[in-house]
From TrEMBL:
Residues 108-357 form the TauD/TfdA-like domain. Belongs to the gamma-BBH/TMLD family. CDD domains: CAS_like. This is Trimethyllysine dioxygenase. One of its GO terms (biological process) is carnitine biosynthetic process.
Length: 383
């Protein structure tokens, strides 16, 4: 009876449970069960004749397929060529300079989030570059931008105002951001608004560097699983401390230790079911001390972790795994920070970058609501 779907038990406006679970007698029994074409009608003993109706669809789903994120995505991994057909244009959101709204806008956001969910990233071309505002407005079509200790939406030219190497012009190896949060940002986006040679703009003739590096972490992890299943298991098993402490008065660390690779469990369901890659945390700069205490049999010793991590690092740096792309003013890149690692080559000159983070849950909610019908979502998520 706790799962009764009736309008007395579930508030139809908020879809929250109105029923007080603990008012249900502990020894409750079905006093009658009636099968209909659409589902089961159950009358309960010990109540004032409360009657519940459970559609077959509901019963089948929860009996056979009890998953919390059940929408299937066929993931497509990418290597050095990058994913195919993952480009949208600013005009898709602003045809003839008119901003789409309501369902029309949702359809385009559905395409954008659908591409990211499947391929891990998407580009939006022809975004205005005269200011950062159009980029911010585009991102906010997915969901609100996440604030962190670095701020919210950013628009900056490298200096060490914030103590993090992202704010310099040196090369950065492939990494995921926010390894130090309990809940790393789900999406990250950046848009290079301009790149000019210092001191006077002579950009077009010189190679200023700064190519962006993107690596499909799921693809790399699957290669590791194929080539060295034990190393893969070590990266799933050894839980590491992560932290962000470069700014005075701020020391961020997840509420518990997290491994480099996290897999979906039976209950999580999701795209590929149990064993499917779910999240990658990889930023050795923000990693703490590898725990000395393994599981005692040497399988998760620090030596085993370093050996496995070295193999993974080697795969991440393979020519056929690294996807290099030169970002140009006008192109906004949005990618799944739980899956895709990013980095860049060193550059000269002055770059103006803008971008931001979006929470994973808010991105997935938006994706779900722009790619599935209200009914499907209600059936699968709310129950
Ligand atoms: Fe980063
Ligand atoms: Zn009820």
């Amino acid at each position: 009876m706790d799962n009764c779907r009736c309008s007395f038990c579930i508030n139809q406006d908020t879809m929250q449970k109105d029923l007080d679970t603990f008012e249900i007698p502990q020894d409750i029994q079905a006093s009658s069960v009636e099968e209909t074409a659409d589902g089961l009608k159950i009358r309960w003993s010990g109540t004032d004749g409360h009657e519940s109706f459970y559609p077959w669809d509901f019963l089948n789903f929860y009996l056979e397929n009890d998953r919390r994120q059940p929408e299937a995505v066929r993931l497509e991994n990418f290597g050095s060529d990058g994913p195919k057909s993952v480009r949208l244009s600013y005009e898709d959101f602003y045809p003839g300079h008119n901003e789409l709204r309501g369902e029309e806008a949702d359809r385009v956001v559905g395409r954008l989030t659908g591409l990211i969910a499947r391929h891990g990233l998407a580009f939006i071309d022809n975004v205005p570059t005269s200011s950062a505002e159009p980029t911010q407005k585009l991102l906010e079509k997915i969901a609100f931008i996440r604030e962190t200790h670095y701020g919210g939406f950013y628009d900056f030219i490298p200096d060490l105002a914030m103590a993090d190497t992202a704010y310099t012009n040196i090369a950065l190896p492939a990494h995921t951001d926010n390894t130090y949060f309990s809940d790393p940002a789900g999406l990250q986006a950046f848009h290079m608004l301009s790149h000019t040679g210092a001191p006077e703009g002579s950009a077009s003739t010189v190679d200023l560097g700064g190519q962006s590096l993107l690596v499909d972490g799921f693809h790399a992890a699957e290669i590791l699983r194929r080539e060295d299943a034990e190393a893969f298991e070590v990266l799933c098993a050894v839980k590491l401390p992560w932290h962000a402490s470069g700014n005075r008065g701020i020391t961020i660390a997840p509420h518990k230790r997290y491994p480099v690779l996290e897999l979906a469990s039976e209950e999580d369901g999701g795209s590929g079911g149990a064993g499917q890659l779910h999240r990658v945390r990889w930023n050795t700069a923000d990693r703490g001390v590898v725990p000395f205490s393994g599981d005692g049999d040497g399988k998760t010793s620090p030596e085993a972790w370093y050996a496995a991590a070295r193999k993974f690092d080697g795969i991440l740096r393979r020519k056929d795994v690294e996807y290099w792309v030169q970002l140009k003013p006008g192109t906004l890149l949005v990618f799944d920070n739980w899956r895709v690692l990013h980095g860049r080559a060193a550059f000269t000159g002055v770059r103006r970058m803008c971008g931001g983070y979006i929470n994973r849950d808010d991105y997935i909610s938006r994706w779900r609501n722009t790619n599935f019908s209200r009914q499907e979502i209600m059936d699968r998520i709310v129950g």
